[in-house]
Design brief:
By secondary structure, the protein is α+β, with helices and mostly antiparallel strands. The protein has one domain: VSR Endonuclease (Endonuclease, Chain A, 3-Layer(aba) Sandwich), CATH 3.40.960. The chain has four helices and four strands, in the order αβββαβαα. It has a four-stranded mixed beta sheet, with helices on both faces. Strand 2 and strand 3 (45-50) form a beta hairpin. The protein starts with a helix and ends in a 5-residue tail after the last helix. The mean pLDDT is 89.
């Protein structure tokens, strides 16, 4: 994990008892390879963490959207989470994640 947001996300996942994801994984999209912040391959779920430091310009957001689309075209569900999703809306974020990564979904 390279950023404070990634560390906080990992802590949230652990504290809430969710299965741990693979982190900082290279995943082939339809047209390019992308680094995914958190991946549950058995559930076909990728989480991309969009902190302000690297995702604040229009160009950054356009690149993020293109990356998400490219990954989705391979059958992955992509959930993009912000700093606030991880740090101030934790319960809501867990409610979004839990049904997607629960063990009985395989």
């Amino acid at each position: 994990m390279r950023s404070e947001l990634e560390r906080r996300f990992a802590s949230l996942v652990c504290l809430r008892g969710l299965p741990p994801p693979q982190t900082n994984v290279l995943v082939d999209g339809e047209t390019a390879t992308h680094e995914v912040d958190a991946l549950w391959p058995e559930h076909r779920l990728a989480v991309q963490l969009a902190g302000w430091e690297f995702h604040h310009t229009r160009r950054d957001r356009e690149h993020d959207a293109e990356s998400d689309t490219d990954l989705e075209l391979t059958g992955l569900r992509v959930m993009r989470l912000t700093w606030d999703d991880v740090t101030t809306r934790e319960a809501r974020t867990v409610r979004r994640l839990e049904p997607l990564v629960s063990h009985d979904r395989r």
